[in-house]
Amino acid sequence: MKIEQIYTGCLAQGAYYITSNGEAAIIDPLRETQPYLDRLKRDGVALKYIFETHFHADFVSGHLDLSRSTNAPIVYGPNATCEFECITAIDGQIFTLGNVTIKVLHTPGHTMESTTFLLIDENGKDHAIFSGDTLFIGDVGRPDLAQKAAHMTQDQLAATLYHSLRDKIMTLADDVIVYPAHGAGSACGKNMSKETVSTIGNQKETNYALRATMTEAEFIAEVTDGLLPPPAYFGMNVAMNKKGYDSFESVLNLGMRALSPREFETAAEENGALLLDTRKNGVFAKGFIPQSINIGIDGDFAPWVGALVADVQQPILIICEVGQEEETVTRLSRVGFDNLLGHLDGGFDSWVNAGNEVDTINRISAGQFEQEVKIGESKIVDIRKETEYSAEHVDEAYNKPLAAINDWIKDIDPKEHFYIHCAGGYRSMIAASILEARGFRNFTEIEGGFNAIAKTSIPKTDFVCQSKILKY
After folding, report:
1. What is the distance of C-alpha 116 from the center of its chain?
2. Phi, psi of 439 (to 5 degrees)
3. How far is CA 146 from CA 189, 193, 406, in A?
């Protein structure tokens, strides 16, 4: 028996590849399936099952393409209704894989079809669980995403999750390994650890939601406290995972169409396309195609596209570094952005060489900011998360998280200058590009963000000063 965790950092997502005696199973596969097919060929094994822990909201699964390529059936837990051929297992059902077995543990609460798969080894011993979004390392799945589909409130879903954890998971032996679907950085939970593997015993000791003395009411209150609104693309990804989607290869072919600057410009005008520039923020600041939005491929690219682009059907044109076209298309497809019109052949340089107009961002260093800023007079907008801001921020700065930019941008006074920063420059350049695309020029972006500002003498406030924080 072999278990391989295939972890994708930009999505904080874990897929699992299990083999035993010539047979394999894959749990929660990503959209692009060739890496799995390569593993199967390398190991000389046949894919027997594709297990899905639930209908994922934060990424589009590769279950359909993988099933088409291998004829392996797709297995969901109870309550799953698919618009394609799949096995809807019953609670307690056993699936044989080589010399091991996989048992279905129905664990609703995150969603009503959420299922944990228990791997039982060759000796009949419970070895590991693949817990999906039911149990994370340090956290549990958020219970607010499935309210409409389940006709339940988030409190009712949380209560359901409470009993799933205690009746199905916490009763397992302490040495059973926990393999979750996500780690720190995922929007599917709020307190996930950077660790991606644990044990039942360790989670009983360290996971706040698994306290032995915790009542149902306490669980509901703590699990639902501080939940941020889910990204807009979550519902659309659930629909794609339930109903089906175009093959990854067809999406890749669309995105890999190379367009000349003239063709690129025509496609943008005729289709109302989003111009998505994936270059590094420092490069983008020095020159970019007017109206383009910068979301760097080197950061949390796919989640930020999903959070800020309201519709997965939005036509997209790609500007990227030469050689990064396939990676960009792949990562867009993982979150369901399939309506790709192509990419700029030769990248941004070809646009410049054709004599086309370019734009820039007014960016200054933290040192220049230190010289220019007047605390109490200058307006400073910190677009980090509330938790980051609360830990420490520039005196008198306002907290306007990037995820909510489509709300707070409406309140900007176009005649009032302001400074904008995040932690390191990645998010603030996203915001800067959106601001310029919406016609705002009355701002200055800080290179290096708060990480650089923290090294200056600019006055700062931390969470201890509650009166400061409550003021904003």
Report:
1. 21
2. 95, 5
3. 14, 23, 24
- Cβ atoms < 10 Å from Cβ of 383: 25
2-235 under CATH 3.30.413.10, yes or no: no
* Residue 378 burial (C-beta neighbours within 10 Å; 0-12, 13-18, 19+): middle
pLDDT 10s digits, 176-226: 999 999 998 888 877 788 899 999 999 999 999 999 999 999 999 999 998
- State the Cα–Cα distance between residues 8 and 288, nearest whole angstrom: 29
**What fold characterizes domain 246-353?**
Oxidized Rhodanese; domain 1 (3.40.250)
At residue 463 the predicted structure's pLDDT band, cuts being 50, 70 and 90, is low
Residue 146, both tokens = 């499935």
**Which strand (E) or helix (H) includes residue 221?**
helix 216-224
Other Cβ atoms within 10 Å of 106 Cβ, number:
20
Could you report the per-residue pLDDT of 124-174, keeping only the tens digit for each? 999 999 999 999 999 999 999 899 888 999 999 999 999 999 999 999 999
Residue range(s) occupied by CATH 3.40.250.10 in the chain: 246-353, 363-471
First CA to last CA distance, the chain: 56
Q: What are phi and psi of 160, to 5 degrees?
A: -65, -40
Total-model pTM: 0.92
Q: Which CATH architecture has domain 363-471?
A: 3-Layer(aba) Sandwich (3.40)
